[in-house]
Amino acid sequence: MAEPRPITLITHPRFFDHDTGGHGHPEMPGRLTAIAGRLEGGPLAPLVTSTAEIKPAEWHQLTPCHDETYLYRFEEAALAGRSWLDHPDNQLSFGTYEAALLAAGAGIAGIDLLESGTRTVFGAVRPPGHHAEQGTALGFCFLNNVAVAARYWQQQHGRRKIMIIDWDAHHGNGIQAAFEEDPEVFYISLHEHPTFSFPGTGWAEDTGSGAGRGTTLNLPLPPGTGDAIVLALLRGRVASAIERFRPDGLIVAAGFDGAAEDDMSGLSYSPALFRDLGRLTAAWAEQYCQGRVLSLLEGGYHLESLARGVEAYLGGLAGVEV
Ligand SMILES: [Zn+2]
Predict the structure, then answer these.
(1) Separation of CA 160 and ligand 1 centre (Å)
(2) What value does the CA radius of gyration of the chain take, rounded to a whole number of Å?
(3) What is the pTM of this model?
């Protein structure tokens, strides 16, 4: 059996300063506590190194993906004590703006780690990012952490072809919008079908536009979809898309709300699927990207299954049985 791969886990205490107001808001600080608690005493503990050495993303790192006017609007809303931005789903607190800059900064720090010899980085970040658009907060997301990291990887380190795999239960409309005309960033999403699920995007017919035609792959899934169908898609259409594209870098939008216990979707994934996602991702990273892969946390709201899913995924990435 191959040597286990060490995992670098990026997280930061300021992520707890993003207060979504209680009242049962699902995107709560306790999500990160649940993950940390599960990993600390668990079998992966010897393989996981945690770091909080991250800096807030700078505006010039965000503006490839977000309008300046939006960034001003977001900063002003948080600092002025407004309770939400653009939609009541997107609850704000005074600390939200700084937490969001740090969540985007975690992706940037993760890319720098990958470029300095680290192979497997997981960012346990919040707020999440994949629904955030150029000028709009949506679905608990303010800054598109994954999109910002992809642009940074290209611009700072010259990796041209970035593949983003998003298996959060919901379509990452913000990531798709950022890259749908860009042939150098390939976006793959597996999500509950838009007829049944937020945000109502991610149709199979959407394959990119202009020069980016063919570098978006949406795989919408009917409610109730479980491990077997997803695994078949991963080994079939996803694997062949990666083989054709031959990425220089791999970023995963890692959402765990497809878990059967998570009522934010009708999908029915077991922990074994998250383990297999980790194994496949590690294999793709080895084959095409010298092992380099950055994963950033997106959704996952049932605390116990979120923590179990993250552990299973990291175990798969590390190449150990959990
Ligand atoms: Zn989600």
Answers:
(1) 28
(2) 18
(3) 0.98
